[in-house]
Amino acid sequence: MANSGTSAVCTAIFISILCICYAFGDFVVVSTTSGDVQGYQFETSPSIGSPAFDHIYIFKGIPYAASTSGKLRLRPPQDPTPWEGIRNATRSGEKCAQRPSIYPMQPEAAPLYGEFLGHDNNSTSASEDCLNLNVYTHDVSVLANQPVMVWIHGGGFTSGTGSSYPGEVLAAHHNVVIVTINYRLGDFHSLQTLEEDAPANFGYLDQIKALQWVQANIRNFGGDPEKVTIFGESSGSQSVSLLVMSPLATGLFHRAISQSGVWILPGRQVGDVAATETIASAAGCVTTPYGDMMSCLRGKSAEDILAAGRPGFPLPVVDGHFLMDAPNNLVKKQQLNKVDYLLGTNNDEYGWMLSITRGLYADGMTAAEFQAGLPYYLFFVGLTYPKGNMSVLIPAVIQEYLGSVDKDDLFVVRDQFVQLKNDVGFVASTVLMAETQSAQSVRVYQYEFQHRSSIFPFKPDFVKAEHMDELFYVFGIPLLRQDAAWKLPFTDQERDLSLDIMAYWVNFANNGDPNDFSGAARIRDSADWPRYTPSSKAYMKLNLTSSADVELREKRMKFWNEVVPKLMGEEDITSAAVKVSWGFWGFPILLACFLCNI
Ligand SMILES: *[C@@H]1O[C@H](CO)[C@@H](O)[C@H](O)[C@H]1NC(C)=O
Ligand SMILES: *[C@@H]1O[C@H](CO)[C@@H](O)[C@H](O)[C@H]1NC(C)=O
Ligand SMILES: *[C@@H]1O[C@H](CO)[C@@H](O)[C@H](O)[C@H]1NC(C)=O
Ligand SMILES: *[C@@H]1O[C@H](CO)[C@@H](O)[C@H](O)[C@H]1NC(C)=O
User: Which residues are catalytic?
Assistant: First the structure.
């Protein structure tokens, strides 16, 4: 009797552990700290090529924090209101309030990028009740212990939404839980207050809140909270680098992936509410006393704030909470979270789309045009070295890029210009981060993505792999089948490249090594990717046929990371942050957007 009673209790406990989630029909219910959520079962094979799992579970629009409107605007994110019963999590949540993108999409490209980034985004409305996330997993058992990958979307910190990025293919091919998150954008992210506990960096605090949700809940979705990788592209990638620098994020993730963007520039000074005052005035609020301004601002609608705001690129704030020092100083002092880091760039980030508004120079570029562009493109370099002299830097840059080429060949000059933007905007900071992080003896892997996709025949011939191009491969878009909701005409070789890249990314998330297939659903015969160390400086060329190499753009990296700091009097940098006020700097910052990804 006693015996069978004990075993019945044990069985009951065991079953209840296994069945925190339960599936009925096409739906599945999982418990979270705020209440139960109902996701749906997605049959993979009709829309995804050669899946490892015939179905996955998808949960959309799970709130991880409360609405940030009204009193909670420009405040740190708070817990969501718990709910009774089962919450329907089958539709994407709202995206965060945002202005229309200032970034023009070429008409030929719009259908292609639009299918991808407009996927789900077009139909989703925007508000300040936007702090929600989506989960994709093939196994919701609490014992599944799958690695977790949390995606931080790009969009210049001013636009975008997590639900645009389909997690279906990664989850259908791999033992991995994919989470895509929203975070506050534009002025809702970047305006400063004088509150002591959290005066700034609201979008980053949201990202941290989402990572706390993952710690508390992801086991119930089949994930291992001890094996969390954050990954992101463009401003999402820069967010990843800032989370690597933030003490608030320590322990919330274990590995990081940055795709095209590492932030090693100064931050803004805390307590600078000039931009907040500007927007308050424009929205019809008094600016003094401070308390009245803030209650008036918090009383306005999201639309009022958007209308009063200005487009621009928000700099992170050295607030003593999220960031203890300017990012460039933190890197110099190696004050970074010790997490494995896979990071890289595309070989032509400015090849086409990011350069459109500044001129494509289809017929080449004169040396005079090259020189005329420099003050814009070196703007942020100037910020990094406040005591440096731009009149010294500019001739040095001209010498570096045009000194040993035929300055009369307009195409050669244009090519040097595009390389310059690529180096200064993306590659130099990525290489510096790889160097710094590998010196902390964590595992670092660097890549350069080189493949120009076959779906872009309309791009000028000189364009190689540009900004955003690797996204298609990381998210397995070439694997989508004819009868998926949408599909793009990739080739079989491109499908293989996508399979390789997805495997590298998930292997890294699982084992800290893109080559290590332990725990993988399937093994691929992919090229070996050597680790970046301070002495190897190895990196992987991701292309239809991938191969390893060393010292990416070695001479140019020495120029930006060793010669320029000396030229600009690096030893003189003592201030933790430069003071950037929007009134004066707004316009240059807007122009410099094209340096920092949209
Ligand atoms: C959840 O929402 C979806 C989409 O609107 C709907 O089809 C489904 O019936 C809803 N489920 C429940 C239990 O209400
Ligand atoms: C989303 O909107 C963009 C821009 O209007 C368009 O190009 C794209 O095709 C749309 N995508 C979908 C999936 O509807
Ligand atoms: C900057 O360098 C230029 C050229 O060498 C020099 O003429 C100028 O005086 C310098 N400015 C400062 C503030 O040192
Ligand atoms: C990438 O591979 C293609 C096709 O094999 C090749 O033509 C191209 O030169 C490679 N890119 C680079 C940068 O090596």
Answer: 234, 349, 467
